[in-house]
Amino acid sequence: MKVTVxxxxxxxxxxxxxxxxxxxxxxxxxxxxxxxxxxxxxxxITFTDDEGIRKMNSEYRGKECPTDVLxxxxxxxxYGDGMPAALGDIVISLERALLQAQEYGHSLxxxxxxxxxxxxxxxxxxxxxxxEKEEKEMFExxxxxxxxxxxxxx
Length: 154
Known about the structure:
Helix content is 47%, strand content 19%. By secondary structure, the protein is of the alpha/beta class.
């Protein structure tokens, strides 16, 4: 299975390092592998700042506040043979990810990997806001992927 990850940086507040870019793509691939996603796929990741994600959160969710990550699923099973599935778009506030990494006492890379895995699960249809059982399942899956990546919670 080939997974193509497109990365766009639309913010200037936090340096987007090659290490963060590589780990983001690896996190997307690891989450899809863990879920047994059966085909080639494409995912885009856009890094923005708090103001950029606040605007998107307001427009798409009606919430007037910044958030850490937004997921925009696109997946439609009606693709031709051999064509990669366009799973969707991930938007991460790198500014918020840095603050959360500092709060949790781990690296920016670990926080961004967590947000990527979290978002991929949303792209695949998981929703932690529908109930305690769903939330527990999704969070267990996230931690399992991160542990396999060598990025366990401290």
